[in-house]
Amino acid sequence: MTFVRNAWYMAGWSDDLADTPLAITILNDPIVIFRGTDGIGALLDVCPHRAVPLSAGTVAEGNLVCPYHGIAFDTGGTCRKNPHIQGPPDRLKARAYPIADKHGILWVWLGQADLASVDAIPDYGWFDSPGRYAAGGGYVHIEADYRLVIDNLMDLAHADYIHPTTVGQPGAAEVQQVAVVREGDTISVNTLWPDLPPSALHRQAWTRTERVDKYLDMKWQPATNLLLNLGIMAPGTPRDSGVHTPTAHILTPETDRTTHYFWKFARDFDIANAPLTERLVEIIGRAFSTEDKPIIEAAQRNIDRTGAKLTNFTKGDTGSGMVRRELERLATQERG
């Protein structure tokens, strides 16, 4: 499996972390996250004493306490209390990972610790700007290789066929204008769907015209972070004359064949309308969980049982193919 370890991976929303530890598996590593007296800690979810999951324990006096023998670790993984020995307990250590809290997201770095710069965390500032945007999001667990999910996101022509009553616009695949752009370490598939009826999603708020132009710029940034810069406007008018609904698609590989799919959208219109946010969350969540998820998982099952190979022929396939090659390059570079 192609995993890039020198990268930030989303482990959950900041609001998910309460007084109890949060457990998640990333790149096959079991990880536990907790709030200590000196901030947030991320440790390998394996007690170095008897291999019990530390996430089954509790947080006491700012330390994570193993439920088996009461051994306590700080956010850096150093043992601060061991009731079973005399003398300093700090020779016992649990593996610790760099962790950051940014844009309301918990990020964990699984690679070489001295390379973990918070400046490398993608900019998702739209999603923690309550005065300018209203936001809503969710989570989907997908039983498939994370790269299949990236393929799905980079080629949005599929929306014409599997999302006709949610986020898609019938007829878009035949009229879309697509460009693949590479800038620095990012790869984008920039798409325009011109002069079509608005999707069910945008019909919740758009009443200006019966038809719209829609732009969908999907940008990938290593290793598994995607941002869909999305908006609609009256046909033939500038982007800034319409409405803006960017969406973050943040993928965290769980194992070789399972993926955590975190998503969050923002909107710059009617931002005080909470019921509208709820409706949009329902529509987007339904598209991901009942339309994308079954298709991707079915493809994975076919690949596993038949050894099927993937064929590229759309512009979106070109973009996802570039992403796959870049992931392989980065993983090979890490292996030296």
Biggest sheet descriptor = 8 strands, antiparallel
Pattern of helices and strands? EEEEEEEEEEEEHHHEEEEEEEHH
Strand percentage, roughly? Answer: 25-35%
C-alpha Rg (nearest Å): 22 Å
Structural class designation: alpha+beta
Total DSSP E strands: 19
Uncertain runs: none
Helical content stands at 10-25%
Counting DSSP H or I runs of 4 or more residues, the number of helices is 5
Task: Describe the secondary structure blueprint for this structure.
Layout: E1 8-13, E2 22-26, E3 29-36, E4 39-44, E5 58-60, E6 63-65, E7 72-73, E8 79-81, E9 96-97, E10 99-102, E11 105-109, E12 134-142, H1 146-154, H2 159-162, H3 172-175, E13 177-183, E14 186-196, E15 212-221, E16 225-233, E17 243-244, E18 247-255, E19 258-267, H4 274-306, H5 315-335
Antiparallel strand pairs: 1-11, 2-3, 3-4, 4-9, 5-6, 6-7, 7-8, 10-11, 12-19, 13-14, 14-15, 15-16, 16-17, 16-18, 18-19
Helix pairs in contact: 1-5
